[in-house]
Structure formats: structure tokens, C-alpha cells
Design brief:
Helix content is about 65%, strand content about 0%. It is mainly alpha-helical. It has one domain: Tetracycline Repressor, domain 2 (Orthogonal Bundle), CATH 1.10.357. Helix 2 runs parallel beside helix 4. It is globular and about 50 Å long.
């Protein structure tokens, strides 16, 4: 995505690297939060995931949604530092990330849904 933000320059300024790194970490976390919100009931029944905070009821869904709002706000703040094409690509990836947890219920290959996002 850095090449889209910079258009043609072969050199990436440190400020862009910091933005992309921060955005990647924050939005990866937001994707995990969305996944845990949607799957909290299923996670209780799976040995590998039963100890996740939402599955254990250590965190309420309301608190998780507030946390997700914070993550998305930081992600938006990072995204708005970039050019319009990069903003479009970033916004276009949100439905894909949101759809992924649901695809686990109807296919054995839910990762296939993430292919368009990874090809940005």
C-alpha cells in the first residue's frame, strides 16, 4: 500500500513507514476484535478458543465494541494521513474483514475471502 500512497517515488519516508506500521497493527487488532465479537458463542465450545476474554465473559460485548470503536478511530486517523486512493483501498478492505468470521460458518476455506484484501 505504501507504493499507492507515494505514487511513484522509490523512497519511502520514515513517516509513511510509521503510518503503515501503526495502521497495520491497529487494524489487525480491530479484525481480531470483530472476529472475537462474532464468534464469542462458538469460541466457548472450542478447546483452542474457550479461554478468549469474550468467550470467558471477562469482557462484555459492550466493552469490546467500545474498544473496537477506539481501534477504528485510530485506524481512521492513520488512514486520513494518506492520499485518496489509499483511503479508498483501506475503506474497501473493511467489509472483507467483517465478512471473514461469517464465512467460517459456510465454507472450509474462509481465508479465500481475505485474498482481495491481501492483494492490495
Amino acid at each position: 500500500m505504501s507504493s499507492y500512497a507515494l505514487s511513484t517515488s522509490p523512497w519511502v519516508p520514515a513517516s509513511y513507514l510509521a503510518l503503515f506500521g501503526t495502521g497495520a497493527i491497529i487494524m489487525r487488532g480491530a479484525g481480531c476484535t470483530i472476529n472475537d465479537l462474532w464468534d464469542r458463542k462458538l469460541d466457548r465450545a472450542v478447546e483452542r478458543t474457550k479461554d478468549r476474554p469474550l468467550a470467558r465473559n471477562d469482557i462484555t460485548p459492550t466493552k469490546a465494541i467500545v474498544f473496537l470503536g477506539g481501534q477504528l478511530s485510530v485506524g481512521l486517523a492513520v488512514l486520513l494521513q494518506l492520499n485518496w486512493y489509499s483511503i479508498f483501498l483501506g475503506a474497501a478492505s473493511l467489509p472483507i474483514v467483517t465478512l471473514y468470521p461469517f464465512m467460517k460458518r459456510i465454507t472450509y476455506w474462509p481465508q479465500f475471502v481475505l485474498v482481495p484484501k491481501k492483494s492490495e
